[in-house]
Design brief:
five-stranded parallel beta sheet; 11 helices; six-stranded antiparallel beta sheet; FAD/NAD(P)-binding domain; alpha/beta; 2 domains; single chain; 444 residues; Elongation Factor Tu (Ef-tu), domain 3; 16 strands
């Protein structure tokens, strides 16, 4: 597709994390972009605003440790001049060794960069018809509209797979009883940025009983396919009385000197720069709102909690990507159509943005050389692309993890494995960028 000046034009569907990242990269490559976003004209069941790159669930982009899979992924993205990472650092809030952001500042930063880029045209409208002869990146997210979903199904003769995602409640900071709750990060790693609500065994027993007997929002049969990474805490609780103690209520490393070790701990993470809102970590839920209020106010320190946003469930849709996509996020049957974001089978904020960046790199190469050039499997970006394009009978969305990387192939000490993975990834990425003569991108 070309614009009026004869320049190559790429359509990007969706201004979420993947779409925004892809649009910015391509625009900085002097490629014209038409970015379609249906919000706020048409909203989804999960979004609260019409802002670009809205963080729907948590406000955390997880670990900053380069020896952690998502930390390594961030480093790789930064080497390409990632807009999402730039915005995250601009809007960061205290979160210990993790990266968390003020949602509004984060989205506003991205939206401003996109809207003021001379090579990007934003179109606020629902995109419904895919033309396989036009360069198009579909980054509509897991909540693609019904019309677009139908167009995808028609074009690829594929049924979508579905799972349901859950959003955690947000609490007003001033309503938290800090005479009971306390600030601390696990094992004192990083800044003491989390508010911790300790429980005795008796308090936990009563809380657990209330959770497993609480009324839930009715869901249909096909809605029971819940993604493991966003498991509602009441579903986790059903797996056994101690399951929550090894998950979101794990007390290990959260002791206070001179006081008995708590039996369980509920953590809250700062959600905005002004420290007025905190989300309950790991407490995604589909309990009814009345029941949410009841069980939340059973947590010591949250007896009078003012719940600013209740947890909700929403449908996520993703492709059976190994049958449709190659390792460049390019569709096998229609080479000018690419997918990125959660709809492509990656899971998580950072992963979604990384897939958009990877897809944009591939589109740029396709425009220049009429062929894509997948990233090395030794990189986390490349390993993710390999995962979503490799035949798999039980394909499900996947977070970045070191298990996606190829084995090192030489003897090493187990405790050094993560470091070697990271070093190898960055070396492979450097060679890839030198080969393509690309790297950190600056805005036009």
């Amino acid at each position: 597709m070309y614009n009026r000046n004869g320049d190559i034009m790429v359509k990007i569907i969706g201004a979420g994390l993947a779409g925004s990242e892809a649009a910015y990269y391509l625009a900085n490559q002097h490629i014209q972009v038409k970015l379609y976003e249906m919000r706020p004209k048409k909203m989804t069941p999960a979004h609260q605003t019409g802002h670009f790159a809205e963080l729907v669930c948590s406000n955390s982009l997880r670990s900053n440790d380069m020896h952690n899979a998502v930390g390594l992924l961030k480093r790789e993205m930064e080497s390409f001049g990632s807009l999402i990472m730039e915005a995250a650092h601009h809007a960061s809030v205290p979160a210990g060794s993790s990266l968390a952001v003020d949602r509004l500042l984060f989205s506003s930063y991205i939206e401003d960069k996109i809207k003021h880029h001379p090579n990007i045209e934003v179109i606020y409208d629902e995109f419904t018809e895919i033309n396989p002869d036009e360069l198009t990146l579909i980054a509509a997210g897991p909540l693609a509209s019904k019309s677009l979903s139908q167009s995808i199904s028609t074009l690829f003769h594929q049924e979508h797979l579905h799972f349901f995602d859950a959003i955690a409640p947000i609490i007003e900071a001033s309503s938290i009883n800090m005479e009971i709750a306390y600030l601390k990060s696990r094992y004192d790693k990083g800044e003491a940025a989390y508010i911790n609500c300790p429980m005795t065994k008796e308090e936990y027993d009563a809380f657990y009983e209330a959770v497993i007997t609480a009324k839930r929002v009715e869901i249909k049969d096909f809605e029971h396919n819940v993604f493991e990474g966003c498991m509602p805490f009441e579903v986790m609780a059903e797996r056994g009385k101690e399951t929550l103690l090894f998950g979101p209520m794990k007390p290990v490393g959260l002791e206070i000197e001179g006081k008995p070790r708590p039996y369980a701990v509920v953590q809250l993470r700062q959600d905005d720069a002004a420290q007025t809102m905190y989300n309950i970590v790991g407490f995604q839920t589909h309990l009814t709102w009345d029941e949410q209020k009841k069980v939340i106010q059973m947590i010591p320190g949250l007896e009078h909690a003012n719940i600013l946003r209740y947890g909700v469930m929403h449908r996520n849709t993703y492709l059976e990507s190994p049958k449709l996509l190659n390792a460049s996020y390019q569709t096998i049957s229609h080479p000018k159509i690419f997918f990125a974001g959660q709809i492509s089978g990656v899971e998580g904020y950072v992963e979604s943005a990384a897939s958009g960046l990877n897809a944009a790199i591939q589109i740029s190469e396709y425009i220049k050389n009429d062929a894509t050039k997948p990233l090395p499997r030794e990189t986390m970006m490349g390993a993710m692309a390999h995962y979503i394009s490799t035949p798999n009978k039980s394909f499900v969305p996947m977070n970045a993890n070191l298990g996606l990387l190829p084995e090192l192939g030489y003897k090493h000490k187990k405790k050094s494995r993560k470091e070697f993975y990271a070093l190898r990834a960055l070396e492979a990425l450097k060679a890839y960028q030198e080969d393509l003569k690309i790297g950190r991108q600056e805005s036009v």
